[in-house]
TrEMBL record:
Substrate binds at residues 179-182. Residues 105-187 form the Methyltransferase small domain. This is Release factor glutamine methyltransferase. Keywords: Methyltransferase, S-adenosyl-L-methionine, Transferase. It comes from Castellaniella defragrans (strain DSM 12143 / CCUG 39792 / 65Phen). Pfam families: MTS (PF05175), PrmC_N (PF17827). S-adenosyl-L-methionine binds at residues 113-117, 136, 163, 179.
Length: 273
């Protein structure tokens, strides 16, 4: 019979780190506490609560949804099944956006498809002088983004709707960023692993994976000011196609940036003045 944390960790089929994260949630303690108290007797109710979380993980539910949290750019974000789980790759999109507005005072920024709000909130916190608007077609996702903005103290404007078809008014943005759904609807990975639990609308455009990117690039010139910059995240094999989209729609200085694995993951371009 399991009586202590040490015994529970040894018996768990989960990787040790995941089991520890679940125990942290059950006991509401930091990781160091688990190590210092691993021989303390556990209450039956605590063991029951842990087993319930462990069963969800064994059934495949992503750890971020079970915990309801995920770190991004050094900050802790609320995550629910209504939003994509933040990926470390997306930090490259934020870095690209921050570089794009480095020399612009009080920049106007638009984040299309904000999901949990990680990109918009991070840009607003890293550049407190920026005016940042975040949009999404999913009202549930926007509710999560609002909570994250509020919890982290970021002042954002929100609009609900299809890409540019929201209350954007006549503002011309200095920067448009987007991490749109870019997985081909026929990709078998959509039925595997964590992706099975994420909102389909956040993963795939229901077509070849470039449909959303085409709409975003095509619409950007009508919403960027002269010299404005568009930065988009895309799939590992889409960089060349995205660069030609940018060029076709009048962007200059078009270039793709590589993520930590060396994959071209983000493409940017500047609207010629
Ligand atoms: C890949 S997720 C990105 C979420 C978040 N920006 C991130 O990086 O974690 C794409 C987001 O685009 C939204 N979306 C999908 N189609 C859309 C559309 N036609 N108009 C606006 N938003 C859309 C989804 O609801 C989802 O939140």
């Amino acid at each position: 019979m399991i009586r202590t944390l040490r015994e529970s960790l040894a018996a768990s089929p989960l990787p040790r780190l995941e089991a520890q994260l679940l125990w942290q949630r059950v006991l509401d303690v930091p990781r160091a506490w688990l190590i210092a108290h691993d021989a303390d007797p556990l209450q039956p109710a605590q063991l029951d609560a842990y087993r319930a979380l462990e069963a969800r993980r064994i059934a495949g539910e992503p750890i971020a949804y079970i915990l309801g949290r995920r770190e991004f750019f050094g900050r802790d974000f609320l995550v629910t099944p209504a939003v994509l789980i933040p990926r470390p790759d997306t930090e490259l999109l934020v870095e690209c956006g921050l570089r794009a507005i480095r020399d612009v005072r009080a920049p106007c920024v638009l984040d299309l498809g904000t999901g949990s709000g990680i990109v918009a909130v991070t840009l607003a916190l890293e550049r407190p002088d920026a005016r940042v608007r975040a949009t999404d077609r999913s009202a549930e996702a926007l509710a999560v983004a609002r909570k994250n903005a509020c919890a982290l103290g970021a002042k954002l404007l929100f609009s609900h709707g299809n890409w540019y078809d929201t209350e954007l008014g006549s503002v011309r943005f200095d920067l448009i960023v987007s991490n749109p759904p870019y997985i081909d609807a026929r990709d078998a990975h959509l039925g595997q692993g964590d992706l099975r639990f994420e909102p389909p609308d956040a993963l795939t455009d229901g077509a070849d994976g470039l449909r959303a990117l085409r709409e975003i690039v095509r619409g950007a010139p009508d919403h960027l000011g002269p010299g404005g910059i568009l930065c988009v995240e895309h799939g590992w094999d889409q960089a060349a196609a995205v660069r030609s989209l940018f060029l076709r729609h009048g962007f200059a200085d078009v270039a793709s940036e590589r993520d930590l694995s060396g994959i071209e993951r983000v493409t940017r371009g500047c609207l010629q003045a």
